[in-house]
Design brief:
Elements lengths: L5 H21 L8 E5 L5 H9 L4 E4 L2 H8 L13 E4 L8 H4 L5 E5 L2 H14 L3 E7 L15 H9 L4 E8 L7 H17 L4 E3 L6 H6 L4 E4 L1 H4 L4
């Protein structure tokens, strides 16, 4: 694991926040409408605590089990006292739904109806409302999760009908590229799809391309290596 010192962490956070502010200024947006989600997969609890000390309040984890280890003391795992928010930004298996519902403030990766219905049943049993995003496989890649763009409208309609789910918007991971500008058309497509579905909030953009994502309307940017260094 690449260890990031407190001084290094502080500098990284300052640089990322400055980049967010600059991208927002370029497109006339209020930076307060953009949430930095620190993608902490593979980061240690010490690194997470350091990021918190320097003002990061929202973290994103890819796996339910890893999130519990970092954000829930074992003795209070179902009612964890914590500051800020923890989001699930990786795929969710139906057999992990019970632990995910109510633990994560926002699930970014709802990509099929049976998963949405399983979340609904668990949320209803607890008498809570679970905030979710629908993940779209915007590039229709075989190796990625997400509903196809053509299937997304029907999934959106179905999720909207589930009373214990609150649908906030769409999420996507575009095809990988070394050029941030090459991601712009994919971000634009997601924004257009969301607009057609009367959704205005988007989770898109990672360390390499979050500035372009902001210019295309991102509400949440999922930044990992720019904060925590390269992890396995």
């Amino acid at each position: 694991m690449n260890v990031v010192s407190d001084d290094d962490m502080a500098g990284r956070i300052v640089r990322v926040r400055a980049a967010i502010d600059a991208a927002a200024a370029r497109c006339g947006r209020d930076p307060e409408t953009i949430t930095l989600v620190a993608a902490s997969k593979g980061a240690s609890r010490a690194q997470v605590d350091a990021a918190r000390r320097f003002g990061v309040t929202t973290f994103g984890e890819n796996r339910v089990q890893e999130a519990y280890k970092k954000f829930a003391p074992a003795e209070t795992a179902d009612h964890l006292p914590r500051r800020g928010e923890v989001h699930l930004i990786g795929p969710l298996q139906t057999n992990k739904v019970r632990r995910a519902v109510g633990f994560f403030d926002l699930i970014h990766s709802v990509d099929r109806l049976d998963l949405a219905e399983t979340i609904q049943r668990e949320a209803a049993q607890r008498s809570i409302t679970q905030a979710v995003l629908i993940q779209v496989n915007i590039g229709m890649e075989a190796t990625k999760h997400g509903a196809t763009p053509d299937a997304t409208p029907s999934l959106v309609a179905a999720v909207r009908s589930l009373p214990n789910l609150s649908l906030l918007g769409l999420m996507a991971i575009p095809p990988a590229t070394n050029n941030p500008e090459a991601a712009r058309p994919w971000f634009s497509l997601l924004r257009q799809l969301a607009f057609s579905l009367r959704l205005s909030r988007l989770s898109m953009g990672m360390s390499s391309d979050f500035e372009v994502a902001i210019e295309e309307g991102a509400s949440w940017v999922r930044v990992g290596s720019a904060l925590f260094g390269h992890r396995r």
